[in-house]
Amino acid sequence: MHTTSLAGAPARPTLWAARTCFTVAVLFLIFDSVGKLAKPVQVVEAFGKLGIPMGAATGLGILQLACLALYVVPRTAVLGAVLLTGYLGGAIAIHVRAGSTPFELLFPVILGALLWAPLYLRDERVRRLLPVRG
Predict the structure, then answer these.
(1) Nearest Cα to 58, choosing from 78, 35, 81?
(2) 8 A C-beta contact, residue 119 and residue 25
(3) 89 FRET partner, CA 20 to 30 A, in 52, 56, 96, 132?
(4) pLDDT tens digit sequence for 9-49
(5) SS3 letters across the chain
(6) Is there a contact between 118 and 21 (Cβ–Cβ < 8 Å)?
(7) Short-list 58, 84, 90, 55, CA closest to 72
(8) Model pLDDT, residue 3
(9) What is the per-residue pLDDT for 4?
C-alpha cells in the first residue's frame, strides 16, 4: 500500500529512515575524517597496509570534510553525495589493489548507499533520476 502525506512530503516512517541513514553516514564520515587528521596508530597502520603514504592523510581528511560539508547542506546535498561517491569509488579501488577482504571492499558501497538513501527517500527529483522498480 502506497501512502502519501500532505503536500507530497514523505510519510513519517520514510522520514525517520532517511534521518537514520543520514545520521549514520555523517557520523561515520566525521569519525573517518578526524581520524585522518589526527593520525592515530590505527590509521597509520591502515595506510601502511593499503600502501598510501601518510603524507596524504591530511589532504584526504580535508577533502572528505569539504565534501561532507556540501552533503549536509540541503541545497548542495546532491553535489556532496556525487563527490563522496567518487571518493568512495577511490577507496574501493585502493582496497581492490591491496587485496582487502570482501567486507573491506563492500563497506564503501554500503556507505554510499547510506549517503544516497536519504536523498532518494526525501527528494522526488532524486527518485526521478534513480528510478527503482519493485
Answers:
(1) 35
(2) no
(3) 132
(4) 678 888 999 999 999 999 999 999 999 999 999 999 999 99
(5) CCCCCHHHCCCHHHHHHHHHHHHHHHHHHHHHHHHHHHCCHHHHHHHHHHCCCHHHHHHHHHHHHHHHHHHHCHHHHHHHHHHHHHHHHHHHHHHHHHCCCHHHHHHHHHHHHHHHHHHHHHCHHHHHHCCCCC
(6) yes
(7) 84
(8) 42
(9) 43
Residue with the larger pLDDT of the pair 86 and 2: 86
Confirm if 78 and 119 have CB atoms less than 8 A apart: yes
Cα–Cα distances (Å) from 80 to 6, 65, 69, 96, in that order, read: 28, 10, 7, 24
Q: Is 102 exposed, middle or buried (0-12, 13-18, 19+ CB in 10 A)?
A: exposed
Q: What does pTM read for this prediction?
A: 0.87
Q: In angstroms, rounded to a whole number, what is the distance separating the alpha carbons of residues 27 and 42?
A: 18
Task: Give the cell for residue 84.
Answer: 563522496
pLDDT at 130: 81
**Would you state the cell numbers that stand for residue 77, as one nine-digit string?**
546535498
- pLDDT tens-digit readout, 85-109: 999 999 999 999 999 999 999 999 9
Q: Is 95 helix (H, G, I), strand (E, B) or coil?
A: helix
